[in-house]
């Protein structure tokens, strides 16, 4: 649990001044996976786990970073952002690089990154650090950047500095999340609508496989390319098609079927975009049962067609699938590890976690961490004045 008071104290110990503190939460995604970079829709929400950053100005051009998670300091300056190999500071420095590319004038600064979003669990902790950094520096230097532009800056930082060709979902959610609501985001136009998510009698339970998604970035980038390949094949015949958003199953059958792998990838995305739109209808009718069935269908597609699941994620879904207290379950996020998201009847949550933990250990020898996710508001400035 991140304690603001503790962050404040640490900031004083390290940098001898008051910080501006920003909270940027992790996210869940109810349905609509790998659709964002295909111009489709997603249905995410921000949760009660967040990254906190404290920032203050320096008079020189140095950047002093501290990450509580690693209990590690890192020092550099505004002229030396790039590193020879990956380091956690990339999530901060990538944002600084984007600000510089857009000609914002910065001086050096101090920053502490803290929080309780589990790393590598599929809750978008990296996007939360990037958004928190963009938000914090925007406040600190009075840059006047809009929320949507901060989203784009954070996304570009991930793509260009970290190297993951991610879509917009994680950053958009982090900035625009709303308490008790999911966001139905059109990733082509950035138009969005909030849907109240009624949590009476149910809980959103995240079951963490403890597998850190290490394959994620290379395989993720490959999936993205395969989707583009599918679009290119169709474009040869139908030049008006811009992305998988414009594609139907008939088009895939006609123009892509000869390339089985690309066909399967594209088929999943086309089906998932439709499934999400139908799932929004379920939510509006408060038909959570029907919504849950779609989550299982999404898992199957992610596992068999898109092939971004792993044995442990499949086991985790299998273990709950016949349990009547579980309304829907699927892997969540980029894949290859991390959590499953489960909609569970409230009165059965504890028993489910207990039983699944035991069975998961029996099947895999691994530990299961469980989180109950509560939908909270998106990124914000932490206003409390703290006496040190
Ligand atoms: C990661 C990416 C997102 C999205 C999901 C899959 O979280 O950062 O942009 O593509 O995977 O839905």
Describe this structure in words.
There is one protein chain. By secondary structure, the chain is α+β, with helices and mostly antiparallel strands. Helix content is 41%, strand content 22%. The chain contains eleven helices and 13 strands. A six-stranded mixed beta sheet has the order 5-4-6-3-1-13, with helices on both faces. A four-stranded antiparallel beta sheet has the order 10-11-9-12. A hairpin with a 7-residue loop joins strand 10 (326-331) and strand 11 (339-345). Helix 10 crosses helix 11 (349-364). The structure holds alpha-D-galactopyranose (GLA). Residues 33-34, 36-37, 124, 166-167, 169-170, 333-334 line the site of alpha-D-galactopyranose.
Give the bound compounds.
Answer: alpha-D-galactopyranose
User: Structural class from helices and strands?
Assistant: alpha+beta
Largest sheet: 6 strands, mixed
How many helices in DSSP terms? 11
Percent range for β-strand residues: 15-25%
Bin the helical content.
40-55%
**End-to-end CA span:** 20 Å
Q: Judging from the principal axes of the Cα atoms, what is the shape?
A: globular
**SSE string, helix = H, strand = E?**
HEEEEEHEHHHEEEHHHHHEEHEE
Radius of gyration: 21 Å
Mean of pLDDT? 95
Q: Which runs of at least 5 residues are low in confidence (pLDDT < 50)?
A: none
Observed structural traits:
388 residues, binds alpha-D-galactopyranose, alpha+beta, globular
In short:
The protein has 388 residues and is of the alpha+beta class. The protein is built from eleven helices and 13 strands. A hairpin with a 5-residue loop joins strand 7 (181-186) and strand 8.
